[in-house]
Structure formats: C-alpha cells, structure tokens
C-alpha cells in the first residue's frame, strides 16, 4: 500500500477562557462549534473543536482550554501561523467584519500569488485569511460561513533543511513556492488544508508553549490501514512514533519533526456524528465511556460551558 497525505486534518492550539474562545470563533469568524469535549489525556482541560457545518477533516481548528492557563510565547521551533481559506472577493468584507468586531487587521504581503489578511485571536494566536481566486462564491450567498477550511500552517525553524526533507522525502509533499525566508509545500489532495510553509528565522527567540500558541498539527490519513503504514514508515526513519490513540472521532499517532514541532497523523473517520446528531453538534459535553462515571465532577470543575453557534 502506498500511503498518501492529502492535507491537514486539524490544528490544535491552547487557550485559557472557553467563553471568550467560543465567542470569537463562532460569532466573529462564523465557524461552528462541532464538538465540546475534554482532553482525553488530561480531563480537566476542555477540548473545543471548530470547523464547517459537519466538521470535515481539513476545516478543523481545536483548542485545549486550560482555565486561567499561562500565556505562551510564539517563536522558533513552533507553529507560528494558522491560515484559513476564503473567497478572494470576500477579503474586503472580512476586513470590515473584523474591524467592526474590534480586531486589528493587517494586509499580508502576497505570497504564492494569494493576498491575505492577518490578525490575532483574543489570546494572541496568529491567524490569516487567504484569498482563493478560484472560489467565486458571493458573500451574500454564504454570509456566516465564508471560511472554507484550513489553508496552511507556518512552521518556524532555524534551519529548514531537515523539516523540508521530512515533508517531501518521507511524507510526499511537493515544494511549490520559495523565497529566501519561506518554502511552501503542497499535499496531493484537492480539499482544504493542502499547504505547509516552513519559515527560516535563525535569530528568533525560542518559543514557549501556552495560551496563544499551537500545540500540534495533524495530517490526514484516509484509513486506519494507511495510518499503520505511516507509523511503520516514520519509525523506520528513526522517529519516535506513539502507539495508535483512539480519540473517538478519529484515531491518531504522534511524533516530532526534526526540529521538535509536534505532529500527528489522524484518520478521516469515524467523524463527529458518532455520539450526537449533526444538527446538535457542540451542544453538550461529550465524553469517552471511561469518563462518563465522573461526568458531574468534570462539569462542575470546567465551569460554565461555552456558547455554541449551532
């Protein structure tokens, strides 16, 4: 079997205030809260998933919400940017929408032929909206769900060579753009989240993990069989890869790229409708069976659940 990485599955970041987080991503960015659960390895931590109406792989940004957690500092050896894809014709409307919400917006230099807007979420996570010239959808027809999904992530490292080699020679991505400071790599798929940028910043201080930082980036595997092939292939390259973890909505393996950034390969299925109907996604705290006996205690410790746009 020849395994294929078809793009990003999800990106997971860290936040400290669940209500503020949910308000920004549902009300300001118009994403849907598709799952409200906990970190299965640390149940006192919320795990909130945002995406499109059904939570398709490639549209998902998730947050570990550590109540009153420490702030992080983005820097070297970290993911320093998360980009979403929107219709290029809608960028002006997005600029106005964000400004009206009190968000400071900047224009990114055009990169790989695509204009973009840059801004930060309430805890400082660097976000970008990238204009897709091929998406002709009108703003009026999609008011409230203009974000099409993930576009790309930016990995910042002092030396791009080992990271670039992992992405191309091992994971099968192809370099499609380059300048003195960045390289862009594309996955083979045609869905959302096809791109990974590797940025060189030798003098940038080392980052520290906390609120406002990305915890890890997950890539897509179409099936469990492909995931097992990836597990074996990565281990054969000398990388320390975890056992397969059952995350209820997908299965995951984890490893670190050569400069220490945490990566994941997650299966496309079974998806977010395994424990609640699509129309009710995100309305109730969902737990794995092992945590149901302590549901009441968890709900008390996790304080008031965040709002949902569903």
CATH architecture: Roll
* Average of per-residue pLDDT values: 92
Rg on CA atoms, Å: 19 Å
Low-confidence spans: 138-145
Measured distance between first and last alpha carbons: 39 Å
CATH topology: 2,3-Dihydroxybiphenyl 1,2-Dioxygenase, domain 1
Order of strands across the widest beta sheet? 2-3-4-1-13-16-15-14
* Rough outline: globular
Tell me the major beta sheet: 8 strands, mixed
Q: Based on the structure, what is the oligomeric state of the protein chains?
A: single chain
CATH class: Alpha Beta
* Total strands: 16
N-to-C SSE series?
A: EHEEEEHEEEEHEEEEHEEEH
Structural write-up:
- There is one protein chain.
- The protein is α+β, with helices and mostly antiparallel strands and about 300 residues long.
- The protein has a single domain (about 10-300), classed as 2,3-Dihydroxybiphenyl 1,2-Dioxygenase, domain 1 (Roll).
- The protein has five helices and 16 strands.
- The chain has helices at about 20-30, 90-100, 160-170, 225-235, 295-300; strands at about 10-15, 30-40, 40-50, 60-65, 80-85, 105-110, 115-120, 125-130, 150-155, 175-180, 180-185, 195-200, 215-220, 245, 250-255, 260-265.
- The strands form two sheets. Strands 2-3-4-1-13-16-15-14 form an eight-stranded mixed beta sheet. Strands 6-7-8-5-9-12-11-10 form an eight-stranded mixed beta sheet, with helices on one face.
- The longest helix has 13 residues, at about 225-235.
- It is globular, with a radius of gyration of 19 Å.
- The termini are far apart.
- The relative contact order is 0.22.
- The model is unreliable at about 140-145 (pLDDT under 50).
């Amino acid at each position: 079997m020849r395994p294929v990485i078809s793009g990003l599955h999800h990106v997971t970041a860290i936040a400290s205030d669940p209500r503020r987080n949910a308000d920004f991503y549902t009300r300001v960015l118009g994403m849907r809260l598709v799952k409200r659960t906990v970190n299965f390895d640390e149940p006192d931590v919320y795990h909130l998933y945002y995406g499109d109406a059904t939570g398709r792989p490639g549209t998902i940004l998730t947050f570990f919400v550590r109540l009153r957690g420490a702030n992080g500092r983005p820097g070297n050896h970290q993911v320093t940017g998360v980009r979403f894809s929107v219709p290029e014709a809608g960028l002006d409307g997005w600029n106005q929408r964000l400004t009206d919400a009190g968000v400071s917006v900047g224009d990114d230099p055009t990169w790989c032929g695509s204009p973009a807007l840059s801004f930060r979420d309430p805890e400082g996570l660097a976000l970008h909206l990238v204009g897709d010239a091929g998406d002709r959808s009108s703003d009026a027809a999609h008011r409230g769900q203009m974000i099409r999904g993930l576009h790309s992530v930016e990995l910042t490292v002092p030396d791009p060579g080992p990271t670039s080699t992992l992405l191309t020679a091992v994971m099968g991505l192809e370099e499609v753009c380059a300048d003195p400071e960045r390289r862009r790599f594309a996955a083979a798929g045609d869905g959302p989240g096809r791109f990974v940028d590797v940025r060189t910043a030798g003098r940038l201080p080392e980052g520290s993990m906390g609120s406002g930082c990305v915890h890890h980036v997950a890539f897509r595997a179409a099936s469990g069989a492909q995931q097992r092939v990836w597990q074996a292939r990565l281990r054969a390259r000398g990388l320390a890869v975890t056992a397969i973890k059952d995350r209820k909505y997908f299965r995951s393996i984890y490893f670190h790229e050569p400069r220490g950034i945490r990566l994941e390969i997650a299966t496309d299925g079974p998806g977010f409708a395994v424990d609640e109907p699509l129309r009710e996604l995100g309305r109730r705290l969902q737990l794995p069976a092992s945590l149901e006996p302590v549901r009441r205690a968890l709900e008390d410790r996790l304080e008031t659940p965040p709002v949902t746009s569903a």
